[in-house]
Amino acid sequence: MIQRAKSLFPGLSNGEFGIIDQSSVPIIQSGDGARIKDSNGKAYIDMTMAWGSVLIGHANPVIREAAFNAAKSGTNFAALNTQMVELGEKIASISPCVEKIRFVASGTEATMLCLRLARSITGKNKILKFEGAYHGQHPEGIASMVALNDRSSAKANSSGTGAPWTKENVVVAPFNDLESTRSIIKENASDLAAVIVEPLHRCLKPVDGFLSGLRQITQDSGVILIFDEVVTGFRLALGGAQEYYGVKPDLVAYGKALGGGFPIGAFGGSEEIMDGVNENRYSKLNYTWSASTTGGNPVSCAAAIATINILSEQQSYEQLHRLGGDFREQITEILASEDEPFQVLGDGPLAQVVFTDKPVNNSRDWAVANRKKGHQLMQQLIKEGVFLNPMGTKMYLSLSHGIKEMEEFFDKFACALKSINKL
Ligand SMILES: Cc1ncc(COP(=O)(O)O)c(C=O)c1O
């Protein structure tokens, strides 16, 4: 399998992988709960859970059944369908800012539509994002992520975007630094359409007052505030980061966990802003074209309805938060015997280990950490039978991670640390 894949896939991956020992790249064959198996029959505890899109667990019978039943009556109509309406109603009742919604097929589409909509509505050109943030595969989503910008200016670094113009149209600010953000917004306000933020920036919690401050500044400056809740949506709380951190944006983008592993994305906001995609405005200057062939297909929507039903059970978020809290505590304990200083980041069912002695509040603090060691640790964990993406060091937990998986993980984590310390 590895040889066959090697002849086809650049870097022996379908994107963002970077496993150095290419003879051990897992080609996944199956998944069940929090575990997966590769084509050689090797079993792994999954600590990436399809980059967080499988929050309930692999091959969950309820989600599988819902999708299967929907598929029996047709897999895609590229039009309003009954599952889409039911899902839209659910999200509107859950998400603080959603009055109107549209479905797409990925998080990338959802954030891209939010940005385009903000530009059309305001007639302004620039977007502000936070250094190091990822908002999907469109140019603005990547700017100043692959490589950080030069701090002397707020112009984005366009590395990895394939779009040199992002230097001009994207401005960047340091996450968790409200004063710098305020002055960059003020400087650019006449040309700034929107601020897009991951409320939990990668794995970094917002400091007290940062998100509410951002809400206030954007409101005062006539700039649209977009929450990229592709990661935080339905994960930190049913109402996502909006509910969890108590701040309401103008527009929100969802993806990942919403689909229970099926491809989905959604964007929504107030009736007034979302009217920008209304085809009645077709050909008017402030109209935004929005159409996604497989967006809102009944199979993904049925899977999403089943996912939300499971997450709506009272114990789900208690379990996810307890799991994440215990997980961060245990790895902190294991790492305490290390000589290398470290920080354990995260919130809810998310965790990340960063080797640095300084508190990490933004991507620049993270960029100066010992990333080589983080990368080595991830690589070694894969050898020990833990699946994750070694490019980042973020780990995703799910409702399927039980005591057994956690105990096994901690043993493997301790072994992996010992092994890399011998290198
Ligand atoms: C915060 C954030 N936004 C957007 C995206 C893009 O989502 P997708 O990969 O579904 O296009 C991602 C993907 O990792 C993400 O982490």
CATH superfamily of the largest domain: Type I PLP-dependent aspartate aminotransferase-like (Major domain)
Which overall shape is indicated by the principal axes computed on the Cα atoms? globular
Strand fraction equals 5-15%
CATH topology of the largest domain: Aspartate Aminotransferase, domain 2
List segments where confidence is low: pLDDT < 50 over at least 5 consecutive residues: none
In what order do the strands lie side by side in the largest sheet? 4-10-9-8-7-5-6
Helix and strand string, N-terminal first?
HEEEHHHEHEHHEHEHEHEEHHHEEHHEEH
Distance between the termini: 30 Å
Helix content: 25-40%
pLDDT averaged residue by residue: 95
Class of the largest domain, according to the CATH hierarchy?
Alpha Beta
Helix/sheet category: alpha/beta
What number of domains?
2
How many helix segments? 16
Commentary on this structure:
Helix 4 runs parallel beside helix 12 (298-311) and helix 8 (178-188) runs parallel beside helix 9. This protein has 16 helices and 14 strands. The strands form three sheets. A seven-stranded mixed β-sheet has the order 4-10-9-8-7-5-6, sandwiched between helices. The model has no long low-confidence stretch (mean pLDDT 95). Helix 10 links the parallel strand 8 (224-228) and strand 9. It starts with a helix and ends with a helix. It is globular, with a radius of gyration of 21 Å. The longest helix has 21 residues, at 315-335. It is α/β, with parallel strands linked by helices and 423 residues long. The chain folds into two domains: 2-59 and 315-422, Aspartate Aminotransferase, domain 1 (Alpha-Beta Complex), CATH 3.90.1150; 74-311, Aspartate Aminotransferase, domain 2. Bound molecules: pyridoxal-5'-phosphate. The site of pyridoxal-5'-phosphate has 14 residues, from helix 5.
